[in-house]
Specification:
Layout (H helix, E strand, L loop, with lengths): L3 H33 L8 E4 L7 H15 L5 E8 L1 H11 L8 E10 L9 E11 L6 E7 L2
């Protein structure tokens, strides 16, 4: 038989164990949310040069496609999507083997990350984003993105 002091110690031990389990569960839920939260795309700016390949609606649709794809970059804020046709054409001629250059959109995407994703550096950075205009002339397919 337990004496009163042992019963009280047992109760406190059960309370402490319950609190510890609760803290671990809350921490796991927070960590899962933290690692899987969408990127902040609420303040993105779009900048497009004059284009002989795409009209304004196509450029806007390309920008939205990049923004939607970027939303998976947890812990990052999308700052700007920039398209310069002369730069894009040089990039396509230099390092992208395709006959569809007139249907390719190459944007420079500027963003800032908080360092929570180990695959992305903390701070401001940029990368190139490649899209191809679909046959309907309105929608885009993501081809590639990255720093090289």
């Amino acid at each position: 038989m337990m004496n009163e002091q042992d019963k009280q110690g047992y109760r406190w031990g059960a309370v402490i164990a319950g609190v510890a389990v609760l803290v671990v569960v809350v921490w796991c839920v927070f960590a899962k949310w933290w690692m899987n939260r969408p990127a902040d795309t609420s303040h993105v700016q779009y900048s497009y040069s004059a284009s002989s390949k795409f009209d304004k609606a196509q450029l806007d649709a390309a920008g939205r496609t990049v923004t939607q794809s970027f939303s998976g970059f947890s812990g990052c804020t999308l700052n700007k999507v920039s398209y310069d046709e002369a730069t894009a054409n040089r990039m396509l001629e230099w390092g992208y083997d395709t006959e569809d250059h007139n249907r390719m959109f190459v944007a420079t995407v500027y963003f800032t990350c908080d360092g929570s994703d180990p695959s992305l550096s903390k701070g401001a950075q940029s990368m190139s984003w490649y899209l191809r205009l679909n046959d309907d002339g309105k929608t885009w397919t993501e081809i590639d993105y990255g720093n090289g």
